[in-house]
Amino acid sequence: MVVALTVPVFSLMWYHATTTMSQRTGWTQSVSRQLARNGRANLLRDGAPDDLEIGGEFVDALNRFAATAPDDLDIREASADAARRFLSAVLAINPYVELDASDRRRVQAVYRDSAERILAGEPVDRVLRSAHYPALRTWLAAKYPDSVRIGLQDRYVLGQITYAEYPPHLQLRVLGLDSRRIAGRVLDLGCGRDAALVRYLAEAGVEAVGVDRSLDRQEDFLVPTSWFDYPLEPDAFDLIVSHLAFSSHALYQLNTDGPECDRYLARYGDILGALRVGASFVYAPSLPQWEERLSAARFTVERWAVGSGDGTTASAVVRSAATSSEPGEQIV
Question: Residue 206 is part of a domain; what is its CATH number?
């Protein structure tokens, strides 16, 4: 699998409380133009820091920021905002990159260090090429499986992974579900920014909850967090679904020998442990490597073809027995 990656350059959205609205608008425009200048550059390519273009207007904007003598709070807030924008851009290009709080802290530290160097008088160009870009490159390289990262080393310009959201009726059809027969507590892992299926079920009176790291805000039935961080209690749900989400990410790790394979396997067990007796975890694509390891006395597995004959399948794992797990016991 070839992963396409585009990395924006130094998306440092500095904000200072004393700046005027026109100054903020001008800065936003200069950042947008700088992002567009290198919007398809591959930061993982050997020699990338030296090849990236740095616009003169952007350098001027950074120097003007330094001239405002920002305090520590300004720098901290600006660095946090810049890190959020950079990480959002990374996920927009490759949603299979796994991020946690430590990644956010590390990237924010990179931006803060770069800001402090510029404020100390170091030339912007030198800071970006000798410190900022190499630090981001080192962090990003560690997030990619070796097989993928090596394949990207000689690419100058790359595309991106298409990661679309689908209407509720299509998701239900792929997952083999009839909305009229869905009842009880339902969890959608990786519901997407629009949470279309969760909203559809909630409007139909179903007690549905959606979890996704891309959600902008928390609502009564939406939780903006990752499927790793969402608390899964035993015997909690009557149906758990995940359409082209959890299992897609798990397969990416499996197919690339990624560093998160064991973490996904453990979470797969947590998900099955959150099912009530008779409840199902329904997802696409299938995970035959793990499904075949399940206890036949505790779970039944059904698999069916989806799509246009490309071999893709969906699966339903049903908890068929009330046998309880021992503390620390692995389901898979």
Answer: 3.40.50.150
Provide the whole-model pTM: 0.78
Judge if 194 and 273 occupy the same domain.
yes
| Same domain (yes/no): 133, 257 | no
pLDDT tens-digit profile of 89-129?
A: 888 788 888 988 899 999 999 999 998 998 899 998 899 89
**The domain containing residue 276 runs over which residues?**
168-319
* 75 and 99 part of one domain: yes
Q: Phi and psi dihedrals of 62, rounded to 5? A: -65, -40
Tokens read off for 232 = 């899964």
Question: If DSSP states are collapsed to H, E and C, what string results for 17-83?
Answer: CCCCHHHHHHHHHHHHHHHHHCCCECCCCCCHHHHCCCCHHHHHHHHHHHHCCCCHHHHHHHHHHHH
Q: Which strands make up the sheet holding 275-284, listed edge to edge?
A: 222-223, 207-211, 185-189, 237-243, 275-284, 313-319, 299-305
Strand partners, 297: none
Element (H, E) at 88: helix 72-93
Q: In this structure, are residues 141 and 49 in contact, taking their beta carbons and an 8 Å threshold?
A: no
Is there a domain that residue 203 lies in?
Answer: yes
Q: Can you tell me the distance from the alpha carbon of 130 to that of 194, in angstroms, rounded to the nearest whole number?
A: 40
Same domain for 113 and 226, yes or no, is: no
Number of domains present in the structure of the chain: 2
Question: Burial level of 234, CB count in 10 A (0-12/13-18/19+)?
Answer: exposed
Please, which residues have CB within 8 angstroms of residue 47's CB and are 6 or more apart in sequence?
none
